[in-house]
Write a structure and sequence with these properties.
Amidase signature (AS) enzymes, 17 strands, 11-stranded mixed sheet, alpha+beta, two-stranded antiparallel sheet
């Protein structure tokens, strides 16, 4: 029997508004599911049940009294442990911040609360969001709900697992090189990386870098869009904050795919991609490409993107974490140290060239959309791997130049400042979730979401491409 915590957020919000269900009973369903399965996966690492229960009672009373309700009214939400939450521990997965309790919410969280969401807890992340394996020195590792010995991806891994297992109907994420998109793909849920500034990030350490963005996650594209509608706002503390697109506040409607031109790319031109994933993507895209007005095999121009990404990410890490690594090297996870150490090896000429390359990449990306409407590609290059490994060192015998290289399929669009959605597309040859990206130019957030929603409907109608669901009974037994 389906529990309340298994229903989509849009449907839950409808039922709360019509008084069919109470925010109190929904919260208790999510709490019970968390207690049942989290021992097997370790996704909800800090819980605030008492406060959530008090807020749920207030939310219930407001419904019964006929008050105006926010778009997320009464919906439990998991907040990634990188985002500051007033009165709730926020560690960023770091031993250096293990006891940190913020005095106020950061804007993304405050906006979510203002629309009626109830924070049930904080979801796990690698230290400072570094790396695509949710594993840190404070809380340990978060397992994939389809195989708890494997990684859930990262850095928004805790959020993806919480969604896949029904701990919360909504969860926040963030994305630099794929931190939101990779775990969505690995766990069989949906996620959206918005354009820079759509969700203001006033606490980002390097304010003039557009690459790290805050975003939304749900079990469906509509759910992710619902959370995004609460997160968006304008804040001058984020220099990329832009005028709000009113369409982002409206309920999501699917695009007419018969009028959409899609570029289909197995590796975006030069991303490492396993032979198995090449074959799976070609087979799956062959199942849906006929629904578009035009679907051509076409690769964007990402010449020199790998060095560009490594250099500009290095600049960000030296700025944000260089002092921490100098003073606390032995207390910081190896991925953070690696980013800082490599960043310090670049010189000013390297940085200047990276900026030139990134500008060209971004302009070439924009020009592509004079001829196509979206780009569709895989969400990952390999199947989820054992979480005992920090990263992927080789693909089909090819050694990865850096610990990030296997994530090129997601970090390449970041260098173009793309917006993008990830949605489930069945399972791979290992029985693990397989996801795809729907990508667009910056500013096309609403259109990308509409196309992704329409494609999600197509995929859901085919058992081979429908969203997979983990075996909860197995997780409960493990717990």
């Amino acid at each position: 029997m389906t529990e309340l915590c298994d229903l989509d957020a849009v449907e839950l919000r409808r039922r709360i508004g019509t008084k069919e269900i109470s925010p109190v009973e929904l919260l208790e369903s999510c709490i019970q599911r968390t207690e049942d399965v989290d021992g097997a996966v370790n996704a909800m690492v800090t819980r605030c049940y008492d406060r959530a229960r008090a807020e749920a009672k207030i939310a219930e009373r407001r419904v019964l009294q006929g008050e105006d309700l926010g778009v997320l009214h009464g919906l439990p939400v998991g907040i990634k442990d990188l985002e500051a939450t007033e009165g709730v521990r926020t560690t960023s997965g770091s031993k250096l911040l293990a006891d940190h309790v913020p005095e106020e919410d950061q804007l993304s969280v405050a906006n979510t609360r203002a629309e009626g969401a109830i924070v049930i807890g904080k979801t796990n992340t690698p230290e400072f969001g570094t790396g695509a394996n949710t594993r840190n020195l404070v809380f340990g590792v978060t397992g994939n709900p389809f195989d708890s010995a494997k990684t859930c991806g990262g850095s928004s891994g805790g959020s993806a697992v919480a969604l896949a297992t029904g701990m919360a109907p909504l969860a926040s994420g963030s994305d630099f090189g794929g931190s939101l998109r990779t775990p969505a793909g690995f766990c069989g849920v949906a996620g959206f990386r918005p354009s820079p500034g759509v969700v203001p990030s006033e606490k980002r350490p390097v304010g003039l870098s557009p690459f790290s963005v805050l975003g939304s996650m749900g079990r469906t594209i509509s759910d992710a869009a619902l959370l995004l509608s609460a997160q968006v706002s304008i804040d001058p503390r984020d220099p990329f904050s832009v005028d709000l697109d009113p369409a982002l506040l409206d309920p999501l409607a699917p695009a007419d795919l018969g009028s959409v031109r899609a570029a289909i790319s197995v590796d975006l031109g030069n991303a490492p991609m396993s032979a198995a994933y090449r074959d799976i993507f070609k087979a799956r895209s062959g199942m849906f490409r006929n629904v578009f007005a035009d679907a051509e095999d076409r690769d964007p121009d990402f010449t020199d993107v790998h060095t560009c990404f490594e250099v500009l990410r290095g600049v960000t890490y030296v700025a944000a974490h260089g002092e921490r690594v100098r003073n606390h090297r032995n207390d910081i996870s190896p991925n953070v140290v690696d980013n800082v150490d490599r960043g310090l090896k670049y010189n000013l000429e390297d940085v200047a060239q990276a900026h030139l390359d990134q500008t060209r990449i971004a302009r070439d990306w924009l020009a592509l959309f004079d001829e196509v409407d979206v780009v569709i590609c895989p969400a990952a290059s390999v199947s989820p791997f054992a979480h005992a490994n920090w990263s992927v060192s080789e693909i089909d015998g090819q050694q990865m130049d850096t610990y990030m290289r296997w994530l090129a399929i997601t970090y390449m669009p970041t260098m173009a400042t793309a917006c993008g959605a990830v949605l489930p597309c069945g399972v791979d040859d290992q029985g693990m979730p397989f996801g795809i990206q729907v990508l667009g130019p910056p500013g096309a957030d609403r259109h990308v979401l509409e196309v992704a929603r329409a494609l999600e409907i197509v995929l859901a109608a085919n058992p081979e491409t429908a969203r997979p669901v983990p075996d909860l009974a197995k997780l409960i037994k493990t717990t």
